Each structure stands twice: as structure tokens, then as C-alpha cells.
Amino acid sequence: VDFSGTYYSAPNCELRPRGPRPDGPPILIGAFGPRMLQITARYANTWNTCWHGRVSSITANRAAVEAACRAAGRDPATLEITAGVMVACPARDGTAQEELNPDKTLFGSVEEVAAALREYEEAGVGHVICWLSELNAGGLAWFADVLHAYREMAA
């Protein structure tokens, strides 16, 4: 990187992550390509995969990142996994949800979606980032019910 500004300059700099370290900020990489998975295996604390529906849809990508970890001499269990999940909120009037691809979008009743989120936890996913199809008061209220049901399942 070369930068020259009014107050600062940084000529001929190299930017290189130092990799997982206990005293630094965690490095999260979202990647699918072979080269980026190699970089993830070497340097990242966390790997993000997105956008999914059912947890089974992460299987192929997860196998690829775990293979990259093994090739780099790293135990795949030391790489935290996060997943972005598309969540289809039901229509406000309570009508049934349209036909959706379960590999791309999580949908169903409050209990079904809560159970599907629990499956991510059981699969070892550390964080789930939910993208709601209805990002409004109704969608947020419905998803609050999902989260309540999710927590009840753990009890």
C-alpha cells in the first residue's frame, strides 16, 4: 500500500494479518474460494458462511474450510464458525409463506424456526446472524417470539 496525504504518509507498506492471538482483536473472514479458505485456516479466529436456510446447507462449505485447516496443520475445531441465515417472517395477516428453498431461507412456524436455529447450535455454529425478510415492527415481534421459543428449548 502506498499512501501520501496532507498529514500522514505510508509509503510501500505491507498489510498482513498476524493470525489468531489472545491479545488482539479476533479476525473474522467470510470466504468460499480455495485461496481465501487457506488464508482463513492460517490467520482467522472465525469463519463466516452465509446466506443459508437449514443448517444442512452449510455442509459443503464447512467441509472445504475444515479441509483447508487440516492442510494448514490446524485443528478445525479451533476455528469458530458463524453463519448468516435468511429468515422469512410470515405475512402480517397470518397467511402461509410462499414456496421457499430451505437451503436458502429458513421459514416455518415460530417453533419450527426456533428448532432450526437450535440445529445450528448443535452443529457447532458459534453465532448466527439473522436477516429477516420483514424488517419492521411485525417481523421483529414475530422473531422475538422465535427467540423466546429458542431459549425455552434449552431449558
Describe the structure.
By secondary structure, the protein is an alpha/beta fold. Helix content is 35%, strand content 18%. Helix 1 links the parallel strand 3 and strand 4. The longest helix is centred in the last third of the chain and has 18 residues. The chain is globular and about 55 Å long.
What is the secondary structure topology, with strand pairs?
Elements: E1 3-4, E2 9-10, E3 28-30, H1 34-43, E4 46-52, H2 59-71, E5 80-87, H3 110-122, E6 127-132, H4 137-154
Parallel strand pairs: 3-4, 4-5, 5-6
Antiparallel strand pairs: 1-2
Helix pairs in contact: 1-2, 3-4
Radius of gyration: 19 Å
So how many helices? 4
Mean pLDDT: 90
Helix content: 25-40%
Largest sheet: 4 strands, parallel
Low-confidence stretches: none
Provide the β-strand percentage band: 15-25%
Sum up the overall morphology in one term.
Answer: globular
Q: In terms of structural class, how would the helical and strand content be classed?
A: alpha/beta
Query: First CA to last CA: what distance?
Result: 52 Å
